[in-house]
Design goal:
single chain, about 475 residues, alpha/beta, binds flavin-adenine dinucleotide
Length: about 475
């Protein structure tokens, strides 16, 4: 290191989107960093280069609209916080309409050059094969969805077999406000109350026989995404994609996740539903519900089309569509404290996709937070968490505490990775959305857009305050 610092270095393991941002944030506070990246010595199944912050697939950072899109708000907050990832993306932008897309080689080269030339950052090309040794008193693990097996095994040995997943099995999540409650009703099967429930914990969507048959036909005909060769075919724990269940027999779903038993349609009590789709509360705010047992490999377009055939979900807005991918991630809500530190191991943080966020931008943003928190501790200060009203705070809250663990699906199956979306933000104060002048009717799409705009504006204001701007 050419510039001296009185501080002991912080170790960052993994030079992807999250680790690169974490290293930058730490170094910018005057604290030295040692960044350990294995590429150059050992590759992954998806990365193709040795550059830091390589984009393994698409070259898009998604919408750059900070006025009414949640990922656009996250972009803006990261720029406010001096993000290296955003600076490098902006400098390497290619035309992509309202999205921020980048020249992938130029982007990674810019990140690599900035980290390489920073006087407080040393980059070592090596695989870290176990948990950081105790003498690395401040460290961040940011090794991503393709964490090398030896380190993954060490994390699993420390946290427990149920705490590390190697595949996600994602069921779609719906914005509660977009579900038609004139068709659906709240009820738990057999009105069971359970330890934390009320007997009315699920939203139920009824189907008659004709609707069920049409739905099964649509599932079987739907376009699916294949697995990459290195992913294998991760059908496990009876966790089959719904379209695979549908293919196994017309009645399979009706005896599985869509069974109608123990449920009475509150709108039509004398008519027994032929099949029922259940949705379960997904976040503490109650703004999101997930479709129980609906993990799927259907393509996104096909999912939206087919799931809107379900009575009550005709106008569903999806906060997340389903998927099944190779993905290493920990059960963060139980393992990490609010500042991303592993409980019982002070000074050891996790960042990026391994914490259960999803996407380039989200991974980098959690790296940004972990870097700031670690640097604050090294400087003798307590980490100051971003307000939950910001995109940073909403995502951090999802990872470390906002998710609801269900009684019938506890552990790693319950917590699934998530992109940032407005469903993760706390609701607005009453009266926060005002009818624009000159608009006679103010509901439906207009009101939804106004709500997003108000949530985005609140986020940016609170983020600026948090950063002391
Ligand atoms: C195949 C695939 C495609 C994806 N496509 C997209 C997409 O199109 N858009 C999107 O937004 N998101 C996508 N993602 C999701 C995710 O956002 C990216 O994987 C993102 O790169 C995650 O950032 P990260 O920093 O957490 O992990 P990474 O960017 O993967 O960085 C982790 C780094 O840690 C290194 N490493 C791993 N183990 C060790 C070790 N033991 N010692 C030292 N170094 C180690 C790796 O080499 C890597 O450089 C995709 C994921 C995968 C797996």
């Amino acid at each position: 290191m050419t510039k001296t610092s009185f501080h002991t270095p912080i170790h960052v393991i993994g030079g992807g989107l999250a680790g690169s941002e974490a290293a930058w944030q730490i170094a910018e506070t005057g604290v030295p960093v040692i960044l350990h990246e294995m590429r150059g010595v050992r590759g992954t199944d998806a990365h193709k280069t040795d550059s830091l912050a390589e984009l393994v697939c698409s070259n898009s950072f998604r919408s750059d609209d900070a006025t009414s899109n949640a990922v656009g708000v996250l972009h803006a907050e990261m720029r406010l916080a001096g993000s290296l990832i955003m600076r490098s993306a902006d400098a390497n932008q290619v035309p992509a309409g309202g999205a921020l897309a980048v020249d992938r080689d130029g982007f990674s080269a810019a990140v690599t050059a900035a980290l390489d030339s920073h006087p407080l950052i040393a980059i070592t090309r090596e695989e870290v094969t176990g948990l950081p040794p105790e003498e690395w008193d401040q460290a961040i693990i940011a090794t991503g969805p393709l964490t090398a097996p030896s380190l993954a095994a060490a994390i699993q040995a420390r946290t427990g077999a149920d705490s590390l997943a190697f595949f996600d099995a994602i069921a779609p999540i719906v914005h509660t406000a977009s579900i038609d409650m004139d068709v659906c009703w709240f009820q738990s099967r057999y009105d069971k109350v359970g330890p934390g429930g009320t007997g009315k914990d699920y939203i139920n969507c009824p189907m008659d026989e004709a609707q069920y048959n049409a739905f099964v036909d649509a599932l079987i005909a739907g376009d699916t995404t294949g697995f990459k060769e290195w992913e294998g075919t991760p059908y496990f724990d009876g966790c089959l994609p719904i379209e695979v269940m549908a293919e196994r027999g017309r009645e399979t779903l009706r005896h599985g996740p869509m069974k109608p038993m123990g449920l009475t349609n509150a709108h039509n009590p004398t008519v027994k539903a032929y099949a029922v789709v259940q949705l379960r509360q997904d976040n503490a705010l109650g703004t999101l519900y997930n479709m129980v047992g609906f993990q799927t490999k259907l393509k996104y377009g096909a999912q939206a089309e087919i799931f809107r055939l379900i009575p009550g979900l005709e106008n569903a807005e999806f906060a997340r569509l389903g998927g099944l991918h190779r993905n290493t991630y920990i059960n963060s809500p139980t393992l990490l404290d609010r500042s991303l530190t592993l409980k019982g191991r002070p000074g050891l943080r996790f960042a990026g996709q391994i914490t259960g966020c999803e996407g380039y931008v989200e991974s980098a943003s959690i790296g940004l937070l972990a870097g700031r928190f670690a640097a604050a501790e090294r400087l003798g200060q307590a980490p100051v968490l971003p307000p939950e009203t910001t995109a940073f705070g909403a995502l951090l809250n999802h990872i470390t505490g906002g998710h609801i663990v269900s009684d019938d699906e506890p552990g790693k199956r319950s917590f699934q990775p998530m992109n940032v979306n407005f469903g993760l933000f706390p609701p607005l104060e009453p009266g926060a959305v005002v009818r624009p002048e000159g608009l006679k009717r103010f509901r439906g799409k207009d009101k939804a857009v106004a709500k997003k705009q108000a949530t985005a504006a609140r986020a940016l204001e609170d983020c600026a305050r948090w950063l002391g701007r």
